[in-house]
Amino acid sequence: MNEMCIIDRFEGDYAVIEYGRVTFNFPRTLLPKDSKEGDVIKFDVRIDDKETSKRSQKMKRLADELFRE
To answer: How many CB atoms sit inside 10 A of residue 17's CB?
Structure first.
């Protein structure tokens, strides 16, 4: 797949990103400060197993407290 993510424009607090035939809004604060229209951007998306586990345990504790008899 050779699709690129390209900053099409900025609208308020969001960058409108083109990805092939799809566009989506992305929070401007998560982009580098010097980002500009026409820039090709790359995302490095990974799952944080440690934080996911901690969050899952916290949600389980909260559910246990809520449904305690």
So the answer is: 20
